[in-house]
Amino acid sequence: MENIETNENYHFSFKFKNSLPWLIPVFLIVFWQVACNLSWVNETLLPSPIDVVTNGIKLFKKGELQENMSISLYRATAGLLIGGGLGFILGFINGVSRRARLLFDSTIQMLRNIPHLALIPLIILWLGIGESAKISLVALGCLFPMYINTYHGITSVDPKLIEMGKSYELSKKDLFIKVIFPGALPTILMGVRYALGVMWTTLIVAETISASSGIGYMSTNAEQFMDMKTIVLCILIYALLGKLSDFIAKNLEDIFLEWRAIERRNTDASETSGDK
Amino acid sequence: MKNLKKSFIAILLLFWCGIAVYGWHLTREDAGSSSLKNVVLGYQAGDEFYISKIRGQFVKKMKAKGYNVKFKEFQNGAAMMQALASGNVDYARVGDTPPVSALASGTKLTYVAAGGTKAKGSGILIHKNSSIKTLADLKGKKVAYTKGTSSQYMLLRALKVAGLSNDDITWVNLDSDAASVAYSKGKVDAWANWDPSVAQVEITENSKLLVDGTTTKALNRSFIVSPTTYASKNKTLSKLIIKYTEQDMKWANKNHSKLIKKMSADLKLSKKVVRRSVTRRTFSMKAMSKSVVKEEQEIANVFYDNNILTKKIDVSKHVQYLK
Amino acid sequence: MPQKLLEISKVGKSYGNSVILSDANLVINEGEFIALVGMSGGGKSTLLRMLAGLEETSAGSIIQDGNKIHGLNKEARVMFQEDRLLPWMNVIDNVLLDKKGKQAVSEATELLEQVELEQYAKQFPSQLSGGQRQRVALARALMSHPRLLLLDEPLGALDALTRTKMQDLIRKVCQDKAITTFLVTHDINEAVRMADRIAIIKNGTIWRIVDNPYRGKESLIDKEKEVEISEEILAEILD
């Protein structure tokens, strides 16, 4: 009997720990609802969470919400794949080849310092206002974090491990697959995580330029008519999508970098045992 | 546990990609069928093209003639003129001011058609309890307007009518979203604006028009403009567009209640607001005439005289009279 | 008469103006265990790296089987001072490195048995102790059947007890496989405990080579003799 009890205790603490990060958001939403109900805030300026959710359900039934969301998701993903892929390739080439580094790096560093949103007028004039303009803008935003992290990851792989690989006669391909890439992976995945963040922020802006679909459009369109419920709904959707992509990125790290988690656990363990 | 996590993330990613592919499909559908010639019409919420779009007849009739019509919505005329300059819009429905600014900045566009005016729905908004009673009271006040739009012209004309100089008021250039907040918070004393926004503010903010376009002769007429090279090659198409739009305009004038219902649902505006803005204007769309060209020329002249435009423009050189 | 594997003749190494090593001569015979001792910074590791082909000689030549070593020495494998295991691979994958197939896996397992780590095959390096990690590194080096095993102070960072155990293990494995071994160390006792011959590096060259008859094929160690030789070498270095 005792055994079961401790087990339950364990479960309880486990769940409590898991729910801790959600405590503040939930509290804020409850507080917000109460504030609306008690008319502490003007409902035309800040609608209550329940209003926002019912509005969301209404838009979902009309099909508007899911259509705009999937279009946004398409633009975001396409931009991320193109920009992130390009950034990875450039970072990789510059990371392994000194000559390429001399040729490209300072140019890329110069371009990197231009805020990519400042290029909107150029992009409109060159690519118009169709899908390609929006996707290019997202791609541009994702390119630099991926480039910098890939480049930095590859150049900072322990040279001693590379020397080991070379002296153990690893082929160029094996040296990359077994030593350089896994060594750079933690930094590259950090780049992915950062690119995901930039992806959403850029997309919001991209969708305000003459879009006729997407979450960003929904929100600017609502803004024009002071439709606060939809504006708040769009903001919440962005928050959730941002959280979701961060969650995926974090889990990708856990899956691909299992060895690091084990390493960390072991150093922690040896440190605590050392204290005793 | 770990494999569970792996498959969970894999499913999540698959789901993500699936939705993204669906989104891609949706954007492809917009591109339309290939055998028809694509025509892109730029519009702003609540305007003539917008009515054609929600009525739905226009697209069908154009399809029968071999055209695939795509509507593209813009937040303001300036953005539409930019898209027109880069060839992303074939016909743009704009107010009377943006084309003049665009011509001055070198955009090669041609006036194809002229619509009705929004003279009664355009003007300078003030709160009903405002200390401003007459146009002359504007002296020393802060007035919001949006640069390059009809509101700028409206304000210039109003000052002229009142006999005030341009320096007698503080000009506050804001886009409509920012202006709406500034106005409701009392950061500006008056706001030069147009329908349906005017109707909305009149009703929700307890406001009225100090002066409207009938007095100031800032009529806020609708136009259809097209890139010059496109317009000269597609006269038949232009005539079709005028013809079918005019048919929709006649429908709109006769069927106010249907129109108001549709517009208020679509624009998420109350019926009261939509009714006010719809009933005080007459919809039409006709080929260009000498008299409307004169109106446009007047705008160009006033803007040039006030150093808003750096170039003198002869509007008559950019007009197509389709008969 | 033992077979000659490698001949170091008049080898020198300098970086710019500073001379690390000059006029070093040494013959390494097939199957012997030779140690190189001397003070830190005396050029021991530099010589080892030249044998591995990780660095080029500035003067003289290193001849192996009649060929001058130039570029990577493909018949040699180095065990570095740090284990240099890949932290993202488990133990057996580290031993295998780029080798594939059933044959290779069973060979790697066998090697892990010889270094007494077969039960750790699926663990990551971070889960092992320093001594265990060096044993994995030894198995990895042996995996490619080197003719020459180069040990660059591999036990330097280990505690005394683990160290003694490792010395015996390495010595035994190399003897069983009859691999020519070249050990660089600053620990004279370690050299005496492991090597057949001990080369002393001093004043930037190979000063003297001392025979260590009490090590080698006989498994019995004469403690007294061992101490005697150690003291002799120490005196030689400090002289």
Automatic annotation (TrEMBL), chain A:
GO terms for biological process: alkanesulfonate transmembrane transport. Residues 69-249 form the ABC transmembrane type-1 domain. Its main location: membrane. This is ABC transporter permease. The keyword Oxidoreductase does not apply. GO terms for cellular component: plasma membrane. It is a multi-pass membrane protein. The keyword Zinc does not apply. Pfam families: BPD_transp_1. It is found in: Cell membrane. Keywords: Cell membrane, Membrane, Transmembrane, Transmembrane helix, Transport. The chain crosses the membrane at residues 20-40, 73-93, 113-129, 135-154, 175-192, 198-218, 230-249. Belongs to the binding-protein-dependent transport system permease family.
UniProtKB/TrEMBL annotation, chain B:
Residues 38-248 form the Solute-binding protein family 3/N-terminal domain. GO terms for cellular component: membrane; periplasmic space. The keyword Transport applies. The keyword DNA damage does not apply. It is found in: Periplasm. Its main location: periplasm. Keywords: Signal, Transport. Belongs to the bacterial solute-binding protein SsuA/TauA family. NCBIfam families: SsuA_fam (TIGR01728). Part of a binding-protein-dependent transport system for aliphatic sulfonates. Putative binding protein. This is Putative aliphatic sulfonates-binding protein. It comes from Liquorilactobacillus mali.
